[in-house]
Amino acid sequence: MADAYVPGLEGVPVTESKISFIDGKKGILEYRGVPIQVLAEKSTFEETAYLLLWGKFPARGELEQFDQELRSHRRVKYGILDLIKCLPNTSHPMDILQACVAALGTYYSARDVADKEENHRSVIRLIAKLPTIVAAFERIRRGDEPVRPRDDLSHSANFLWMLTEREPDPLAVRIMDVCLVLHAEHTMNASTFGGLVTASTLANPYSVASSAVGVLSGPLHGGANEEVVIMLREIGSVEKVRPYIEELIRAKTRIMGVGHRVYKVKDPRAPILQRLAEQLFSQKGESPLYRIASEVERVVVEHLGAKGIYPNVDFYSGIVYDKLGIPLDQFTPIFAISRVAGWMAHWLEQMERNRLFRPEEIYTGEHDLPYIPLERR
Ligand code: CMC
C-alpha cells in the first residue's frame, strides 16, 4: 500500500487509457491521437463520438449506421417525460438530468455488462436520449409540451429543434456541433473518474452515466461555464473589470473559467471557442459579455499567468451559448450531452479489464475508546 496521501489525487494515474491525451504545458489535446483543432474544423459530433468509442474514424457505411442508430433512439418513454413533469420546475436542469439518466436504467435491462451487444445499445441510447431529456425539461418548465425529436436532423440540429421548435439556423447548428466536439472527452477528469468508480462495481451503464452527471454538476467542473456568465454580467462593463478581478485576487477568491489541474497554459479549446464566438457575433451582432471577457482574460493573465492560470474551456463556452439564446442553467447540461460520449468510451474500455476501485485512506482518528452511557455524556 502506498502511504503518501495525495490530495485530489493530483498526478496519480488511476487507469491506462488510449482514448485521449493532454499535454498541459504545451496546450495539446488529442482524441485517439487526433488533435482537437483538426476535429473541431473537420469532424462532426457523431463522427467524433464514434472515434472516441471505437478508436478509429468510421468508414462511410459505419458512420451512416451509427448515425442512423442514434437518430432512431432519440425518443424517451412517456414515463421519463412524466417524471420530469412531476419534479419541481424550479430544479436545476443538471439535477433533472441526473435523475432521468438513472431512471432510463429502469426501462432497459443492462445489468449484464459482459453482454457486448447490450453495451452497444446502452451507449447508443445514452448518447441519443440525453439531448431529448435536456430539451424536454426546458419545454416543460416553460409550460410547453416537449417537442418530439426529428430523425431527419443531425444530432446538434435536432437538439436545437427540440429546444425551440424552430428550424435551426445552419451557423447555430455548426457552432453547437463544434461545442459538442470540444467537450466530448478530456482524459481522467472528475466526472469520468466518478463514472468509472461506479462502473468498477459492474453497475449498469445508466448508473455510470448518472453518477458522472452528478459529478459534472459542481462549479469546480462543468458548472463553471454558468458561473462565468454570472460573473461577466455582474462586472457589467469593460471599465469595471480591473478593480473587480484585482479584488477577487486580493481576497483569494476563485475566478471562474480560469485555471486547470492539468493545463498550465491557455486551454487549447478556448481559442477555438473564441473564434466561434467571433463568427457568431459577426452574423448576429456583438455581445458586450465578450468584450468584458477579453478584458478579464488580460487582467487574469497579467496577475496569475506566472502561476499557470489561463482561461479554460468554460471561459468562452458560456458566452457562445448565451448568444445562441440558451438559458444559463442549461450550459452544463449541454456539456453533459457531449461528454457522455467520453464517459461511455471510458466505460467500454474499463469493462475490457475491470478492477474494482477500492482505494485506501489514512486514518487520523482515535482508537479503543470506551462506551459512555448516555446520561454521563
Ligand atoms: N482563480 C484564482 N486562483 C486560482 C484559480 C482560479 N480560478 N485556480 C487556481 N488558482 C490558484 C490557487 O489559489 C492556488 O494558488 P496558491 O498556490 O497561491 O495557493 C493555485 O492556483 C493552485 O490551485 P489549486 O486549487 O491547487 O489548483 P487545482 O488544480 O486544484 O485547481 C481548478 C483546478 C479547476 C479546480 C481551479 O483552477 C479552479 O477552481 N478554477 C475555477 C473553476 C473552473 O473554471 N473550473 C472549470 C475547470 S475546466 C472544465 C472542467 O473540468 O469542467
Task: Describe this entry's structure for a reader.
The two termini are 38 Å apart. The chain folds into 2 domains: 17-217 and 327-351, Citrate Synthase, domain 1; 224-323, Cytochrome p450-Terp, domain 2 (Orthogonal Bundle), CATH 1.10.230.10. The chain has 16 helices and 3 strands. 56% of the residues lie in helices and 3% in strands. Strands 1-2-3 form a 3-stranded antiparallel beta sheet. It has helices spanning 36-42, 45-54, 60-72, 78-86, 93-104, 116-141, 155-164, 170-183, 190-199, 205-216, 224-235, 241-250, 269-284, 288-304, 313-323, 331-352, and strands spanning 20-23, 28-31, 34-35. It is mostly helical and 377 residues long. It is globular. The structure holds carboxymethyl coenzyme *A.
What's the short version?
The protein has helices spanning 36-42, 45-54, 60-72, 78-86, 93-104, 116-141, 155-164, 170-183, 190-199, 205-216, 224-235, 241-250, 269-284, 288-304, 313-323, 331-352; strands at residues 20-23, 28-31, 34-35.
Highlighted features:
mainly alpha, Citrate Synthase, domain 1, 377 residues, 2 domains, Cytochrome p450-Terp, domain 2, 56% helix, globular, binds carboxymethyl coenzyme *A
Low-confidence stretches: none
Placed side by side, the strands forming the largest sheet appear as: 1-2-3
DSSP summary, beta strand count: 3
Overall tally of domains: 2
Arithmetic mean of pLDDT: 95
The Cα radius of gyration reads 22 Å
The distinct bound ligands, ions and cofactors come out as: carboxymethyl coenzyme *A
**What's the CATH class label of the largest domain?**
Mainly Alpha
Strand proportion, as a percent range, falls in under 5%
Helix coverage percent: 55-70%
CATH topology of the largest domain: Citrate Synthase, domain 1
Give the termini separation.
38 Å
